Amino acid sequence: MNRGRLITLEGGEGAGKSTALAACQAQLQARGIEVLRTREPGGPPLSERIRELVLAAAESGMAAETELLLVFAARAEHVRKVIAPALARGTWVLSDRFTDSSYAYQGGGRGLPASAIAWLETFACGDTRPDLTVLLDLPVAQGLARMAGRGDRDRIEHEAEPFFERVRASFRQRAAAEPGRFVVVDAGQPVAAVAAQIRQALDAFLARPGVLP
Ligand code: Z5A
User: Fold this and answer.
1) Contacts for 177-183 with beta carbons within 8 Å, 24 or more apart?
2) To the nearest whole percent, how much of the chain has pLDDT over 70?
3) Is the pTM of this model over 0.85?
4) Would you say the CB of residue 95 lies under 6 angstroms from ligand 1?
């Protein structure tokens, strides 16, 4: 049996990941692919409980190191209980964020060393890595403006603009370093134009030799 593929969507605040996910899922299913949609931090019940801790506004004094270990604790559970078994049985996994968010937020944003994140990545994920990552890239001010109307800001959303600028720079650096895995989409365009670019990226991925059985 062909193993499934792991596709991740990444981006800063208000980039439009949630908006794009349903369209991605529908596009894959229209090709007869079985798809599991999930998110990070989160997924299985324990990881969702860790998500609540990580994002709770009341935990405003959390150390950066604690935050990093919590997102990886959630990820270890997610990969081992949900993602790796799904991929092994041939199901494709579509995840709203994955390890690139840790490099961007805890690495770029908080300044934690990439070497520590890389070690945790291997420890938590084994050899499970995204096959395709769509980065929805958006100027920080535009993303924050989109989110401004939302009242329920989580702990990380309370950060100041320079934090989100470092997060964006880190995402862009990772995309530049791995052009074979990343597709960067200009998320500042209207919803339909963003959707069209993502559709093209998925079609191109599906056309790669060996991706479909
Ligand atoms: N985090 C971390 O620190 N380390 C990690 O390892 C991981 C995560 C995995 C939760 O993520 C937080 O966890 C996140 C990073 C951290 N930090 N924060 N803050 P999340 O994905 O649940 O939260 P989020 O990034 O804030 O997602 P979001 O708020 O749901 O945004 P989104 O999914 O990218 O956008 P959206 O909901 O689809 O759209 C936002 C709004 O913009 C909405 O009103 C849309 O109608 C509108 N929108 C969307 N697209 C467009 C276009 N093209 N034009 C105009 N308006 C648009």
Assistant:
1) 178/133, 181/130, 181/131, 181/132, 181/133, 182/133, 182/134, 182/135, 183/132, 183/133, 183/134, 183/135
2) 100
3) yes
4) no
